[in-house]
Amino acid sequence: MNNPLNLDLRARAELLAYLVAAHLLARQMTGEWLSAAHVVESTQLWLKTNGGGADVMQRVMLSAQAVDIARRLEKTLQPAVTPKSVPALFCENLRLDFRSPLAREIYQHCLTHLVDSGSF
Question: For the chain, how many structural domains are there in total?
Fold first, then answer.
């Protein structure tokens, strides 16, 4: 089934937040950021789970921005980014858990980043 290219600003921000959270989780668990292959896999998982469609350029742009944002947030959110808080960013179905204040903060940062960069 082909999904239309339907990622509006909020969907792009949610995908970006998901990738940032995945980077932070990988960093907490392994000490390393996600590999390119894992970013591709995470992007495909998010798109499939959320019924979204994005062209290659949109996926590459968001994927490239995710690690940079994760690096910045790791420093600026330092007290909030802990081995306990990062896994709590995700629900059991591997979606972001927006009950988490950290997940909401990451999403807001991603949304602001996209607006400020003119990516809407």
Answer: 1
pTM: 0.88
Q: Measure the CA–CA gap between 13 and 5, rounded to whole angstroms.
A: 15
| 56 contact partners, CB below 8 Å, separation of at least 6 | none
Residue 4 lies in a domain: no
Residue 84 burial (CB count, 10 A) = 7
Domain that holds residue 103: 9-116
Structure token pair of residue 27? 């960093």
Cα distances from 13 to residues 32, 61, 83, in angstroms, run 23, 12, 24
**71 found inside a domain:** yes
> What interhelical angle do 9-30 and 101-116 show, nearest 10?
130
Residue pair 67/21 in contact by the 8 Å Cβ criterion = no
Backbone angles phi, psi at 100, to 5 degrees: -80, 125
- pLDDT by residue (tens digit) across 86-119? 778 888 878 899 998 889 999 999 999 999 988 6
